[in-house]
Amino acid sequence: MKEDALFIITTKMEKEDYRKFLYTATFRRNPAVLWILAGISLLGTIFLQFSVGQIRILPLLLKWCLLMVIAVVVICFQVERKNKTRIRTDKTGTFEQETVLYFYPQHLKTEVPAVKGTHTLEYHQFFQVLESKDYFMFYYSKNLASLLRKKDMEELDSFREFLKEKFGARYRILR
After folding, report:
1. Does residue 173 belong to any structural domain of this protein?
2. How far are the Cα atoms of 69, 72, 120 from residue 59, in angstroms, in the given order?
3. What domain range is 55 assigned to?
4. Per-residue model confidence as pLDDT tens digits over 67-76
């Protein structure tokens, strides 16, 4: 059965991979996040300017930039906190553990040799697949994903074409 697999990829997730994934999922998965953040901080700045009783362009722009920077810094602190919590509470040995992925024509089989566990999913069961510079992110639901590092792959171009064919509109490249 393993010989029927179109692609067999052995990968693992390191702590730095998880950290990069969190930043990608926070800031790049949905491009509207930064626009919404900019809009909310602009509204906050306008209300601040109204409370002073006058609106001048230069102070408005400076306060808007300051609020944007503060908002991004707060989000980065949240991402770092989530990363540290996940690493500290990892009881399953997720990090540094090899996973073997078997991509068949109709399904994906995941095998973790260290725990002797396997899991099979059909491609239609995935929510979304995103491709970033370093990873393929397989979303099982809106908030649950698995990483596949590109540096662990040999046939990157043919694998990318395979994913585009299997996932269609659910496959997206993050720019």
Report:
1. no
2. 15, 20, 57
3. 20-88
4. 999 999 999 9
Per-residue pLDDT at 46 exceeds 80: yes
Cα dist. 164→108, 131, 172 in Å? 15, 11, 8
pLDDT tens digits, one per residue of 141-159? 888 888 899 998 888 899 9
Report the distance separating Cα 159 and Cα 136, nearest Å.
Answer: 10
Q: Are residues 47 and 8 in the same domain?
A: no
Q: How far apart are CA 99 and CA 143, in angstroms?
A: 21
Q: Give the Cβ contact number of residue 70 at 10 Å.
A: 11
Residue 82 shares a structural domain with residue 100: no
Measured CA to CA in angstroms, residue 158 lies from 100, 137, 138, 153, 163 at distances of 18, 17, 17, 11, 9
CATH number, residue 159? 2.30.29.30
Q: What angle do CA 66, 83, 34 make, to 5 degrees?
A: 35
DSSP letters, 95-118, are BT-EEEEEE-SSEEEEEETTTTEE
Max distance between CA atoms of the chain, in angstroms, equals 74
61 vs 32, 33, 56, 71, CA distance in Å? 21, 20, 9, 15
In this prediction the pTM is 0.79
